[in-house]
Amino acid sequence: MALDKPYKDVPGTTIFDAEMSRLGYHLNQFCMSLMKPANRERFKADERAYLDEWPMTEEQKLAVLARDLNRCIQLGGNIYFLAKIGATDGKSFQQMAGSMTGMSEQEYRDMMIRGGRSIEGNRYVGEAIPARPQEKD
């Protein structure tokens, strides 16, 4: 029986739930393996060979090789695990997040300092926007 998942209705958002956890299990385990220096060196020496040791889907492997973190998330990757790939590449979390939004690291940093991205276009598709109360003089 499928669960009702109203949160699937948020534009541009992939929720890491139990279903996504199952889908990305091996991808995320691969990422966690990069916590060990010996595994990082093996991965950097021959990325494809190291990935082929993991029972990931071909699509997941190609997303890792392309460093397409948005695609990795769609395929069950969790950003906290995927950060290990960025660290292996010598990138900060801020650099990774910027690349995922199409922004430079500085643009991403500036946006976050200003309070993050606008909520416009990021609500549930069917969500009604409540009217703001009017200010009194």
Explain what you see.
With 137 residues, this protein is mainly alpha-helical. The chain has a domain at 15-90: Dioxygenase LigAB, LigA subunit (Protocatechuate 4,5-dioxygenase, Chain A, Orthogonal Bundle), CATH 1.10.700.10. The protein contains nine helices and no strands. Helix 2 packs parallel to helix 7. The protein is flat and about 45 Å long. The N and C termini lie far apart (55 Å). The mean pLDDT is 85.
Secondary structure layout:
Blueprint: H1 18-23, H2 25-33, H3 37-45, H4 47-51, H5 58-65, H6 69-74, H7 79-88, H8 93-101, H9 105-113
The helix-and-strand class reads mainly alpha
According to CATH, the fold-level topology of the domain at 15-90 is Protocatechuate 4,5-dioxygenase, Chain A
Q: Beta-sheet strand percentage?
A: under 5%
Low-confidence runs of at least 5 consecutive residues = none
Radius of gyration: 18 Å
**Helical segment tally?**
9
- Give the name of the CATH architecture of the domain at 15-90: Orthogonal Bundle
Estimate the helix proportion, in percent. Answer: 40-55%
> What is the β-strand count?
0
CATH 4th-level superfamily of the domain at 15-90: Dioxygenase LigAB, LigA subunit
- Mean pLDDT across residues: 85
- Principal-axis shape equals flat
Q: How would a crystallographer describe the biggest sheet?
A: none
Order of helices and strands: HHHHHHHHH
**What is the CATH class designation of the domain at 15-90?**
Mainly Alpha
Report the span from N to C terminus: 55 Å
